């Protein structure tokens, strides 16, 4: 049995479980110096990992794209993260875990023969705020100033951080990003819009992160028999959308009811959002019951 110690936040660092206060990484870690690393963020409901295989697949792909060796087998990752959740006390959590290239004297070129640094923590997962689900949230559009490989879940998030902050200062919950007149995604979310009664989300590619919530939502939408399409969304069609939603591990599916100060649809969370939100909640209940992964 895993021992729980009151008021100690357990984290995983390089093969060991330690308290957050004890966890230390050398200043020459390339994650610290260059943002040279990859991360994942995965919800846990009732102690069960949400879509673990999809998160692991995305982690492996991101690592391969930046030529960092994957330090663990799938089974080892599962064992570490499951034990971390148990040590943290189970329940609803958000696991943040990252792999950096490792520690070496500062030089842009890859060092030879170093071990990646692995860190994971399982923070409490706050439920979406009831008023956000009842009334929807505000978003603003901003120019997507990030790099050309947003499909890689890199820890270097300066562009995303600046964009999110700009959105918050404008009184919004999230920024919806536009590149060459088309929606890419949010600063930390994927975007869906209902256009002429069809649910549309941008196709995967280098301009956006392939969201695990996004992919599950497409499955749930297909199961419901609703019309959907993976296609480009122009700025003009976004502004005329019947509904807009943002999806992420932390936000689930949030309805956007005000965009750049203009009301979307009738200013309330839409009928399709209500259906899809309901089936997402149902999926979570099935996960808690151990019926799905
Ligand atoms: C830029 C970006 N896009 C999309 C997402 C949504 O991905 P997921 O649903 O896997 O959380 C995130 C999540 O943090 C993100 O940072």
Question: In a nutshell, what does this entry contain?
Answer:
This protein is an alpha+beta fold and 293 residues long. It has helices at 30-34, 52-65, 74-88, 130-135, 158-169, 212-223, 235-239, 271-288, and strands at 10-13, 16-19, 37-45, 48-49, 93-100, 117-124, 137-143, 174-179, 182-186, 190-195, 198-201, 228-230, 243-248, 252-259, 262-263.
Would you give an account of this structure?
The protein has about 290 residues and is an alpha+beta fold. The protein folds into two domains: about 10-125, D-amino Acid Aminotransferase, Chain A, domain 1; about 130-290, Alpha-Beta Barrel (D-amino Acid Aminotransferase, Chain A, domain 2), CATH 3.20.10. About 30% of the residues lie in helices and about 30% in strands. It has eight helices and 15 strands. The strands form two sheets. Strands 7, 8, 9, 10, 11, 12, 13, 14 and 15 form a nine-stranded mixed β-sheet that branches. Strands 2-1-6-5-3-4 form a six-stranded antiparallel β-sheet. It is globular. Bound molecules: pyridoxal-5'-phosphate. Pyridoxal-5'-phosphate binds near residues 190, 212, 213 and 214.
């Amino acid at each position: 049995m895993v021992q729980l110690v009151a008021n100690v936040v357990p984290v995983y660092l390089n093969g060991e479980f330690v308290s957050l206060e004890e966890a230390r990484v050398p200043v020459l870690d390339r994650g610290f110096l260059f943002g040279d690393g990859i991360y994942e963020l995965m919800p846990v409901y009732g102690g069960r990992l949400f879509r673990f295989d999809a998160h692991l697949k995305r982690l492996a792909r991101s690592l391969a794209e930046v030529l960092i060796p994957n330090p663990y087998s799938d089974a080892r990752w599962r064992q570490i993260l499951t034990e971390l959740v148990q040590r943290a006390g189970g329940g609803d959590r958000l696991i943040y875990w990252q792999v950096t290239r490792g520690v070496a004297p500062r030089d842009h070129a890859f060092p030879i023969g170093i071990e990646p640094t692995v860190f994971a923590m399982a923070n409490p997962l706050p439920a979406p705020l009831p008023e956000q689900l009842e009334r929807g949230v505000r978003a603003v559009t901003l120019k997507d100033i990030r790099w050309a490989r947003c499909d890689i879940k890199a820890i270097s998030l300066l562009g995303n951080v600046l964009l999110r902050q700009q959105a918050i200062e404008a009184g919004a919950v999230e920024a919806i990003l536009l590149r060459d007149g088309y929606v890419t995604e949010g600063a930390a979310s994927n975007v869906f819009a209902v256009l002429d009664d069809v649910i549309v989300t941008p196709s995967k590619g280098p301009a956006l992160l392939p969201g695990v919530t996004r992919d599950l939502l497409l499955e749930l939408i297909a199961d419901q028999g609703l019309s959907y399409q993976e296609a480009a969304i122009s700025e003009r069609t976004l502004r005329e959308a019947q509904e807009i939603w943002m999806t992420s591990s932390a936000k689930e599916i949030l309805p956007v009811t005000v965009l750049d100060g203009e009301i979307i649809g009738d200013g309330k969370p839409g009928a399709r959002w209500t259906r899809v939100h309901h089936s997402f909640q149902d999926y979570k209940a099935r996960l808690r019951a151990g019926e799905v992964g």
